[in-house]
Structures are given as structure tokens and as C-alpha cells.
Amino acid sequence: MLMSSKNKVARLHYMANGFRLLSPGDHVLCAVTGQAIPLEELRYWSVIKQEPYASAEISTRAALGQG
Asked: Rounded distance, CA 61 to CA 67, Å?
């Protein structure tokens, strides 16, 4: 029986120019808001903190310690 990756949180390793899938899923959760971010829409993350963000604004706030 195949396991579906739909509606499942993925685990990723964030790198400077992309990310690597560590465990299957179709989305990640924003580290600040908890909002689900579909993998195909994921654009913002921290390589150092290894966490995803839902928007550029949230990413900037987190980088400045305001998230």
C-alpha cells in the first residue's frame, strides 16, 4: 500500500539556493504564523535557523528578531 503525501507536513533541509526533502509531504508550516505553505509556493526560509516563512515580510521580521 502506497502512503500519500497529500495533506501531510514535509520535513525539509533548507539550503542557500533551495531545499532538500527529508520526509514526504505537500506543505510546511510557517515558523512564525503556523500557516500551511504548499511546497510549490515556498519562497522564504532561514538556512541558519532551518525554518520556513509564509512571506518576505514575515521572513524579515524573524531575521530582525521581531517574529
From this structure: 5
- Condensed to tens digits (0 to 9), the pLDDT of residues 7-53 reads 999 999 999 999 999 999 999 999 999 999 999 999 999 999 999 99
Alpha-carbon torsion angle 32, 51, 18, 5, nearest 10: -90
Whole-prediction pTM value?
Answer: 0.88
Q: Which of 11, 13, 15 is nearest to 24 (CA)?
A: 11
Q: Where are the domains of the chain?
A: 11-63
Q: Find out whether 10 and 27 touch, Cβ atoms under 8 Å.
A: yes
- Paired with 64 in beta bridges are none
Separation between Cα atoms, residue 60 and residue 67, nearest integer Å = 8
